[in-house]
Amino acid sequence: MKYYLSLGSNVGNRLTYLQQAVYQISQYASVLTKSALYESTPVGTVQQPNYLNALCMIQYEQNAFRLLRKLKFIESHLGRKKTYRRGPREIDIDIIDCEGAAIQSEILNIPHEQMTRRKFVLLPLAEVDPDYKSRDGQDIQRLLKSCSQVDSVYRFREQW
């Protein structure tokens, strides 16, 4: 099954955290493609460093809940510490969407409930899958045009 993963880091060596996360993901899933890196200002009012963000598309043959457990293990293994909601993070990995049925549970929502409000998700998603359509049929360009995020997001680096 194809999954879209959003990755972000704004603590320490942001690039290294993203590289290590993708490497660890590749140990149990096929990384089909990954976006360029984007830098974004944090969402919310708390002052903190800018994020490096990316998105990758993977092939993983087990269910989304198993994938979520693997991703949380990777975050922990890379040193992510619990802070506060939308606080600084060594690494953050979210399942944004996947093939198959939508999921709504206490621990997992697919598609991710905030994805259409986040340019730091939509810009790399458009790069990774220019034919992406939301579950209500909107294409990625329309999602980008209607995105309400006003925070700064720009392409940081092509290759990583």
Total number of beta strands: 8
- CATH secondary-structure class: Alpha Beta
Q: For the report, how would you describe the main beta sheet?
A: 6 strands, antiparallel
Helical segment tally?
4
Ends distance: 25 Å
Low-confidence stretches are none
CATH homologous superfamily, by name? 7,8-Dihydro-6-hydroxymethylpterin-pyrophosphokinase HPPK
Strand content: 25-35%
List the helices and strands and how they pair.
Blueprint: E1 2-9, H1 14-25, E2 30-34, E3 37-40, E4 51-59, H2 64-77, E5 92-98, E6 103-104, E7 109-110, H3 119-128, H4 140-146, E8 153-157
Helix pairs in contact: 3-4
Walk me through this protein's architecture.
By secondary structure, this protein is of the alpha+beta class. The chain has a single domain, classed as Alpha-Beta Plaits (2-Layer Sandwich), CATH 3.30.70.560. Helix content is 27%, strand content 26%. It has helices spanning 14-25, 64-77, 119-128, 140-146; strands spanning 2-9, 30-34, 37-40, 51-59, 92-98, 103-104, 109-110, 153-157. The strands form two sheets. Strands 1, 2, 3, 4, 5 and 8 form a six-stranded antiparallel sheet that branches. A two-stranded antiparallel ribbon has the order 6-7. A hairpin with a 4-residue loop joins β6 and β7 (109-110). α3 packs antiparallel against α4 (140-146). The radius of gyration is 15 Å and the shape is globular.
